[in-house]
Design brief:
single chain; 135 residues; mainly alpha; 5 helices; 0% strand; elongated
């Protein structure tokens, strides 16, 4: 039987998650070259602009973020469904821990990365995009 999560705690947790997601998205957009990692809907217009011949836009960044996000949804849905049925607290703790670990991984990978200079992204840029997009 699942234990109910206190509504005030849930609201606070959702506000924190929303704030962190906004910060990560802003940093990814500014530092990794027009890539939105937590919110995938913004990558669809970028891909459309690239495919329509838009100048100064890159295909690989948004495509990487979308592909990794879809993979994360597919891979994470099975354990997520099992944990959600079992206990809400365990599911929240597990998902928050995995998300935090992925963000730490991205942050450590980004140390010393040349960002926001307008140069072509290097492979390490995509190693930062992937863990922030998969969550």
């Amino acid at each position: 039987m699942s234990s109910p999560v206190h509504p005030d705690r849930l609201r606070r947790a959702l506000v924190v998650v929303t704030a962190v997601t906004g910060i990560v998205d802003t940093m990814a957009f500014l530092g990794l070259g027009q890539v939105l990692t937590p919110f995938m809907t913004g990558n669809l217009p970028f891909l459309g602009f690239v495919l329509a011949g838009g100048e100064g836009l890159e295909l690989l960044g948004p495509a990487t973020a979308l592909a990794v996000s879809v993979t994360g949804v597919v891979v994470g849905s099975r354990p997520g469904a099992a944990l959600a049925v079992e206990r809400h607290r365990r599911w929240l703790l597990t998902s928050a821990s995995v998300a935090a670990a992925l963000l730490v991984d991205a942050a450590l990978t980004a140390i010393g990365l040349d960002i926001g200079t307008g140069r072509e992204p290097e492979p390490r840029h995509y190693l930062v995009i992937a863990p922030t997009a998969v969550r």
